[in-house]
Amino acid sequence: MNGAEHQIELDLIAKLGDLKYTYRPDIRDRAALEANFRARFEALNRVRLTDSEFQRLLGSIITPDVYNAAQTLRNINSFERDDGTPLNYTLVNIRDWCKNDFEVINQLRINTDNSHHRYDVMLLINGVPVVQIELKTLAVSPRRAMQQIVDYKNDPGNGYGKTLLSFIQLFIVSNRTDTWYFANNNARHFSFNADECFLPIYQWASEENKKITQLDSFAEKFLAKCTLGQMISHYMVLVASEQKLMMMRPYQIYAVKAIVECIHQDCGNGYIWHTTGSGKTLTSFKASTLLKDNPNIDKCLFVVDRKDLDRQTREEFNRFQEGCVEENTNTETLVRRLLSDDYADKVIVTTIQKLGLALDGANKRNYKERLEPLRNQRMVFIFDECHRSQFGENHKAIKEFFPNAQLFGFTGTPIFEQNASYQQIEGQQASYRTTDDLFQRCLHQYTITHAIEERNVLRFHVDYFKPETTPSPLAGYSPLPGGELKVPSCEGGVPRRGGVVGVVAKAKVIETILAKHNAATNGRKFNAVLATASINDAIEYFELFANIQKQKSEQDPEFRPLNVACVFSPPAEGNKDV
Q1: Angle at 95 between CA 130 and CA 240, to 5 degrees
Q2: Is the pLDDT at 489 greater than 70, yes or no?
Q3: In the chain, what percentage of residues exceed pLDDT 90?
């Protein structure tokens, strides 16, 4: 380690001291690390272990399997003492992570089969090493530190598999101005090499999505004792189906915190504006599971607006945590689970349609009457794609039947006054109109602009077409006397929007798509989507595609027509906005 790198290390340790970490310069090898862990373990669990018991304890908890170690860190475990009596223990205070002992050590040396590794900075919680920090100078990219960590983990006999380092949850790399963090994982989920196989790495950000990359500021915001404890206990997800650890992104964490805080203060409803593709399912899963452990909440319902999304969401929830939610095959099953006191039924995934039937007083199965005991309970409803599902009578029915309920929505495209496309009409149409009307206020934003800036979604590539002053006749559209155009017949009898000019404009769009599709999709290696303003427009485009491609095939035997499918969802509750 050179002088500049050593100074960065000392500055970080000083900063952690300001954050009330205890600096332990005496812990520099495996023996000292284990002795410190033993003292912390015995104090936490109020027990004195014999030397043989401690060695057996180490043998039972140290494992090369990162996922199993992560579970041991978070759970109550059992150990048989020398006299045969069981000892139920935890490695850390899992009820209140803030009350653990937080320590910082540096230059820890661990022997491997062929050499040794030396680690810049380690953070210990109750004597357990949970965070490793590797530092580089300003002239060196943090990616070098990432590669170094991967190399260390691949070295035979490394400390990550045979010492307490198996409990490392997070890695942090920094060159003082550029700081990244990422989760520890087993080898199949942990690689970083020249073959473009990259780790999922993250940079911390403020609530306004401003990057915090300077090491001192990062330590202040991310490594504060309670914050770090929450990051590990609340905002890392152990994905059971894949046996891996997953970090939540900063905006996901802020959204979950906002929902939990709103419920804690009982301050009404709210919605999360997170762009499409930003991981709203993971965010809603974590919010739901945290609410599951809230004794003040009776039920948490995650509501989707289509059956296929019901299945997909349920599968995603169970991917994150096995057996988290069960299928509601019909409304009867939903009602039974709503009335159930089982802990497993506290979080329910259902469709807006099943929920609507359950609250329909006219239903002959009397679901609403059976649900009467729940009327005054504290219920939390989380709506996915709330701009679609919540405009209608269902919102009114939920609020009337559950006066103490709090409603939260997730959307990538909230509806405001500017983009609401119909006038409010009492009755069948929604009496509420915008997302703000329904959910009162936006709790957190992560828009498409933020996602593009962070490269979490692909940037837009936009082609502009200069409008023609006079529409030119297209192939297959014969001019008639008076300058009119002969429009191909419409087999389905769908009325043309915009008359002849509208058809010509659509045909021009199709001609452009056919001319540019191969180049835009790299020789048809990708698919494309054409969004229309209405179902009628979609049908008209579909028929025009068929007619124009048929004509081109007749004119040119080499022409390869595109496969075009028309997809549309039925509108919810007659709402013209969906």
Answers
A1: 60
A2: no
A3: 54
In the prediction, which pLDDT does 91 show? Answer: 98
Joined together, the tokens standing for residue 451 give 């996602």
Nearest to 348 by CA among 369, 334, 365, 366: 334
Do you know the residue count of the chain?
578
CB under 8 Å to 362, separation ≥6 — which residues?
none
CA distance 576 to 578: 6
Residue 573 has pLDDT above 50, yes or no: no
Residue 406 has pLDDT above 90, yes or no: yes
129 strand-pairing partners:
124
Helix 51-61 vs helix 30-45: angle between axes, to the nearest 10 degrees?
A: 100
285, 287, 293, 295: CA torsion to nearest 10 = -140
CA 270 to CA 416: how far, in whole Å? 15
Token look-up 């199993």 returns 68
Is 108 in contact with 145 (CB distance < 8 Å)? no
Measured in whole angstroms, the distance separating CA 498 from the mean position of its chain's CA atoms is: 42
Residue 128: pLDDT over 80: yes
Domains and CATH numbers, the chain: 3-247 (3.90.1570.50), 250-453 (3.40.50.300), 461-578 (no CATH)
* Cβ atoms within 10 Å, residue 106: 21
The amino acid sitting at 121 is: V
DSSP string, 285-316: HHHHHHHHT-TT-SEEEEEESSHHHHHHHHHH
What is the distance between the alpha carbons of residues 301 and 438, in angstroms, rounded to a whole number? 17
Residue 307 reports pLDDT greater than 70? no
Task: With beta carbons less than 8 A apart as the criterion, state whether 170 and 184 touch.
Answer: yes
Cβ pair 305, 354 in contact under 8 A? no
Structural contact between residues 228 and 131, judged by C-beta atoms closer than 8 angstroms: yes
pLDDT of residue 533: 83
pLDDT digits (tens, 9 = 90+) for 6-22: 999 999 999 999 999 99
Q: Name the burial class of residue 194, with classes exposed (0-12), middle (13-18) and buried (19+) by CB atoms within 10 angstroms of its CB.
A: exposed
Question: Residue 502: in which H helix or E strand, if any?
Answer: helix 499-520
- The predicted pLDDT at position 470 comes to 57
Taking the CA atoms of the chain, what radius of gyration do you get in angstroms? 30
d(CA 21, CA 338) in angstroms, rounded, equals: 46
Cα separation, 274 vs 269, whole angstroms: 17
CB atoms within 10 A of CB 193: 11
Which ranges in 186-328 belong to alpha helices (H)? Answer: 215-222, 225-233, 250-265, 280-292, 307-320
Q: How far apart are CA 167 and CA 131, in angstroms?
A: 9
485: pLDDT confidence band, cut at 50, 70 and 90? very low
Q: In this model, does residue 482 exceed pLDDT 60?
A: no
| Mean pLDDT within 220-241 | 95
pLDDT, position 419: 64
The burial of 312, by beta-carbon neighbours within 10 Å (0-12 exposed, 13-18 middle, 19 or more buried), is given as middle
DSSP state of 111: E
438-457 confidence digits (pLDDT tens):
888 999 999 999 988 887 77
CB 101 within 8 A of CB 125: yes
Contact, 226 vs 98, CB < 8 A?
A: yes
